[in-house]
């Protein structure tokens, strides 16, 4: 595990609380799966920071990405299905306040998946504070008087490179837009469970504001716990906010502390927990 190269971002998205940094740990868990084809699935994928690194390292044959949010789904779909058009849009779109306001209207006005919604979501993710698509202002502020300007995180060449690479491996990326609980239930038919690691990173139990869609409530957090712990899915890793409900629901499992960076600018860290199935190998 120590011999793994240090991987900088591979995902084209910035994600508040993103879990790309867990890739070495997840790689260790994957290496415990039986030899041969191996799969990795994220029911709450967001920017899928770890998933794409693991694919790039060839640690897994396929990644299965799911997110209920039409914005997130559209962005991934546009990258995978219209790769060249997406790359061209990254090169051609002016990165300024005018575009930011125009694409904000697109995001606020659409709920059906489309290329336009996908590109607008990506653009706002790269140009808004902390990568928050709805509810945050542009990097550098509305007057652009901040130290960083709106294009500080929009390195066209680097982003095009990531998008083109994703297009080149799209046959190994399966994308869905389902509720996470439906996705997990359906996985029993879609995936070879003995060969699949599920990485589950749900929204916080404590409604922490408006970072991203939160289509979970207490009943669903409990249902997720039932599903994960009924023995159907043999290999999973779960991260959550450190909340009494979670400590109670998973009291029979190993629970480790995890500090996760939410805002790079303000270096804000949140205390989370990492929970394992008990089949973790040595
Ligand atoms: C904590 S983020 C995941 C971040 C991701 N692990 C990463 O590294 O980028 C949670 C994601 O779950 C999605 N989501 C929220 N409720 C959902 C649900 N009920 N089913 C599926 N996805 C959901 C949100 O749209 C969001 O992208």
Commentary on this structure:
The chain has two domains: 7-68 and 178-282, Rossmann fold; 69-174, Adenine-specific Methyltransferase, domain 2, CATH 1.10.1020. The chain starts with 22 loop residues before the first helix and ends in a 6-residue tail after the last strand. The chain is α/β, with parallel strands linked by helices. The mean pLDDT is 92. The longest helix has 13 residues, at 97-109. Helices cover 38% and strands 15% of the residues. The protein contains ten helices and seven strands. Helix 4 (83-92) runs antiparallel to helix 7 (156-168). The structure holds S-adenosylmethionine. S-adenosylmethionine (SAM) binds next to loops.
Write the layout of secondary structure elements.
Layout (H helix, E strand, L loop, with lengths): L22 H8 L8 E4 L6 H8 L5 E5 L3 H12 L1 H10 L4 H13 L5 H13 L28 H13 L4 E4 L3 H11 L5 E5 L17 H12 L6 E6 L2 H6 L5 E9 L4 E9 L6
Helix pairs in contact: 3-4, 3-6, 4-7, 5-6
Unreliable parts: none
- What is the CATH superfamily classification of the largest domain? Vaccinia Virus protein VP39
Name the helicity range: 25-40%
Number of domains: 2
Ligands bound, unique: S-adenosylmethionine
CA distance, first residue to last residue: 12 Å
| Share of residues in strands | 5-15%
CATH topology of the largest domain: Rossmann fold
Tally of separate helices? 10
| Strands in their spatial order, largest beta sheet | 3-2-1-4-5-7-6
Mean pLDDT over the residues: 92
Question: If you compute it from the alpha carbons, what radius of gyration comes out, rounded to the nearest whole angstrom?
Answer: 18 Å
Gross geometry: globular
Main sheet makeup: 7 strands, mixed
For the record, the CATH architecture of the largest domain stands as 3-Layer(aba) Sandwich
């Amino acid at each position: 595990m120590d011999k793994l190269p240090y991987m900088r971002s591979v995902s084209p998205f910035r994600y508040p609380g993103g879990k790309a940094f867990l890739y070495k740990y997840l790689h260790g868990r994957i290496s415990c799966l039986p030899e041969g084809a191996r799969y990795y699935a994220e029911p709450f994928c967001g920017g899928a920071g770890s998933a794409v690194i693991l694919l790039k390292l060839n640690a897994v044959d396929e990644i299965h990405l799911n997110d209920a949010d039409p914005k997130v789904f559209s962005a991934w779909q546009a990258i995978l299905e219209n790769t060249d058009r997406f790359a061209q849009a990254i090169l051609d779109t002016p990165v300024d306040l005018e575009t930011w306001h125009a694409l904000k209207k697109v995001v606020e006005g659409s709920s059906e998946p489309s290329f336009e919604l996908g590109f607008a979501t990506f653009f706002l993710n790269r140009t808004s504070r902390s990568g928050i698509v709805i509810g945050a202002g542009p990097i550098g502020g509305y007057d652009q008087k901040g130290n960083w300007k709106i294009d500080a995180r929009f390195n066209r060449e680097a982003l095009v490179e990531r998008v083109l690479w994703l297009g080149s491996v799209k046959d190994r990326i399966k994308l869905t837009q389902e509720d996470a609980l439906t996705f997990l239930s359906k996985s029993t038919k879609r995936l070879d469970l003995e060969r699949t690691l599920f990485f589950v990173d749900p929204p916080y139990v404590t409604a922490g504001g408006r970072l991203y869609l939160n289509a979970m409530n207490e009943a669903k957090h409990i249902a997720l716990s039932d599903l994960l712990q009924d023995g159907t899915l043999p290999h999973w890793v779960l991260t959550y906010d450190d909340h009494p409900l979670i400590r109670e629901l998973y009291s029979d499992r190993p629970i480790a502390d995890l500090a996760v960076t939410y805002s790079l600018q303000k270096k804000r860290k949140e205390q989370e927990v990492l929970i394992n199935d008990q089949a973790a190998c040595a």
